Amino acid sequence: MKPLESSIKIEVKTEYIEEQSSPEEDRYLFSYTITIINLGDQDVTLISRMWCITDANGHYSEVQGAGVVGETPTIAPNTAYQYTSGTVCETPFAVMEGHYVMVTKDGREFKALIAPFRLAAPGLLH
Questions:
Q1: E-assigned strands of the chain?
Q2: What is the pTM of this model?
Protein backbone atom coordinates (compact mmCIF):
# COMPACT_ATOMS: atom_id res chain seq x y z
CA MET A 1 0.00 0.00 0.00
CA LYS A 2 1.48 3.36 -0.99
CA PRO A 3 1.71 6.18 1.59
CA LEU A 4 -1.34 8.45 1.75
CA GLU A 5 0.81 11.49 0.92
CA SER A 6 1.63 10.07 -2.50
CA SER A 7 -2.06 9.62 -3.32
CA ILE A 8 -2.51 13.40 -3.65
CA LYS A 9 -1.20 15.36 -6.64
CA ILE A 10 -1.21 19.15 -6.48
CA GLU A 11 -0.97 21.39 -9.55
CA VAL A 12 -0.56 25.17 -9.36
CA LYS A 13 -1.13 27.92 -11.91
CA THR A 14 -0.31 31.53 -10.98
CA GLU A 15 -1.24 34.89 -12.45
CA TYR A 16 -0.15 38.47 -11.80
CA ILE A 17 -3.16 40.79 -11.41
CA GLU A 18 -1.77 44.00 -12.88
CA GLU A 19 -4.99 46.05 -12.67
CA GLN A 20 -5.19 45.54 -8.88
CA SER A 21 -1.45 45.99 -8.24
CA SER A 22 0.28 49.25 -7.40
CA PRO A 23 4.08 48.96 -7.83
CA GLU A 24 4.63 52.55 -6.64
CA GLU A 25 3.04 51.50 -3.32
CA ASP A 26 4.91 48.14 -3.19
CA ARG A 27 1.64 46.27 -3.71
CA TYR A 28 1.66 43.28 -6.08
CA LEU A 29 -1.42 41.09 -6.29
CA PHE A 30 -1.22 37.49 -7.48
CA SER A 31 -3.85 34.82 -7.93
CA TYR A 32 -3.16 31.12 -7.79
CA THR A 33 -5.35 28.29 -8.98
CA ILE A 34 -4.80 25.00 -7.19
CA THR A 35 -5.95 21.63 -8.49
CA ILE A 36 -5.89 18.83 -5.92
CA ILE A 37 -6.13 15.38 -7.51
CA ASN A 38 -6.94 12.30 -5.45
CA LEU A 39 -5.04 9.38 -7.00
CA GLY A 40 -5.85 7.13 -4.05
CA ASP A 41 -8.59 4.60 -3.50
CA GLN A 42 -10.62 6.40 -0.81
CA ASP A 43 -12.24 9.77 -0.12
CA VAL A 44 -10.06 12.41 1.54
CA THR A 45 -11.19 15.65 3.16
CA LEU A 46 -9.04 18.77 3.23
CA ILE A 47 -9.34 20.12 6.77
CA SER A 48 -6.66 22.83 6.93
CA ARG A 49 -3.86 24.59 5.09
CA MET A 50 -0.51 26.18 5.88
CA TRP A 51 1.30 28.51 3.49
CA CYS A 52 4.81 29.95 3.75
CA ILE A 53 5.43 33.01 1.59
CA THR A 54 8.88 34.55 1.12
CA ASP A 55 9.17 37.75 -0.94
CA ALA A 56 12.18 39.16 -2.77
CA ASN A 57 13.19 41.17 0.32
CA GLY A 58 13.42 37.96 2.32
CA HIS A 59 10.25 38.80 4.28
CA TYR A 60 8.70 35.52 5.44
CA SER A 61 5.08 35.03 6.46
CA GLU A 62 2.91 32.06 7.36
CA VAL A 63 -0.80 31.72 6.72
CA GLN A 64 -2.76 28.95 8.43
CA GLY A 65 -6.43 28.19 8.62
CA ALA A 66 -9.28 25.78 8.23
CA GLY A 67 -10.05 24.52 4.73
CA VAL A 68 -9.60 26.63 1.62
CA VAL A 69 -11.76 29.52 0.37
CA GLY A 70 -14.28 28.78 3.11
CA GLU A 71 -14.65 25.11 2.22
CA THR A 72 -13.41 21.77 3.56
CA PRO A 73 -13.85 19.72 0.39
CA THR A 74 -14.06 15.95 0.28
CA ILE A 75 -12.34 14.61 -2.81
CA ALA A 76 -13.39 11.20 -4.11
CA PRO A 77 -10.88 8.77 -5.66
CA ASN A 78 -9.82 9.71 -9.21
CA THR A 79 -11.44 13.13 -9.02
CA ALA A 80 -10.09 16.63 -8.49
CA TYR A 81 -11.00 19.76 -6.57
CA GLN A 82 -9.98 23.16 -7.89
CA TYR A 83 -10.07 26.61 -6.33
CA THR A 84 -8.58 30.05 -6.92
CA SER A 85 -7.29 32.36 -4.23
CA GLY A 86 -4.83 35.20 -4.04
CA THR A 87 -2.21 37.03 -2.05
CA VAL A 88 -0.69 40.50 -1.91
CA CYS A 89 3.11 40.86 -1.81
CA GLU A 90 5.38 43.86 -1.25
CA THR A 91 7.70 42.77 -4.07
CA PRO A 92 7.06 41.69 -7.68
CA PHE A 93 8.52 38.26 -6.93
CA ALA A 94 7.79 35.77 -4.15
CA VAL A 95 7.84 32.05 -3.47
CA MET A 96 4.98 30.13 -1.86
CA GLU A 97 4.95 26.60 -0.48
CA GLY A 98 3.10 24.73 2.20
CA HIS A 99 0.83 21.80 2.88
CA TYR A 100 -2.76 20.72 3.32
CA VAL A 101 -3.83 18.57 6.22
CA MET A 102 -6.08 15.84 4.85
CA VAL A 103 -8.07 13.15 6.62
CA THR A 104 -9.36 9.84 5.27
CA LYS A 105 -12.85 8.49 5.87
CA ASP A 106 -11.46 6.19 8.57
CA GLY A 107 -9.82 9.12 10.41
CA ARG A 108 -6.18 8.87 9.31
CA GLU A 109 -4.63 12.32 9.05
CA PHE A 110 -1.75 13.19 6.73
CA LYS A 111 -0.05 16.16 5.09
CA ALA A 112 -0.14 16.73 1.34
CA LEU A 113 2.91 18.86 0.55
CA ILE A 114 2.68 21.78 -1.87
CA ALA A 115 6.00 22.19 -3.66
CA PRO A 116 7.46 25.72 -3.85
CA PHE A 117 6.10 27.82 -6.71
CA ARG A 118 6.87 31.33 -7.95
CA LEU A 119 4.73 34.42 -7.98
CA ALA A 120 6.30 36.80 -10.50
CA ALA A 121 5.22 39.92 -12.32
CA PRO A 122 5.81 39.65 -16.10
CA GLY A 123 9.19 40.74 -17.41
CA LEU A 124 11.11 39.93 -14.22
CA LEU A 125 12.44 36.53 -15.20
CA HIS A 126 14.00 35.68 -18.52
A1: 8-16, 28-38, 44-55, 60-66, 74-75, 80-89, 93-104, 109-120
A2: 0.91
Residue 69, class by beta-carbon neighbours within 10 Å (0-12 exposed, 13-18 middle, 19+ buried)? Answer: exposed
**Burial class (CB within 10 angstroms; exposed 0-12, middle 13-18, buried 19+) of 2:** exposed
Distance CA 45, CA 108 (A): 10
CA 116 to chain centre: 9
Length of the chain: 126
Question: What confidence tens digit (pLDDT) does each residue in 47-106 have?
Answer: 999 999 999 999 999 999 999 999 999 999 999 999 999 999 999 999 999 999 999 988
Distance between CA 53 and CA 62 in Å, rounded? Answer: 6
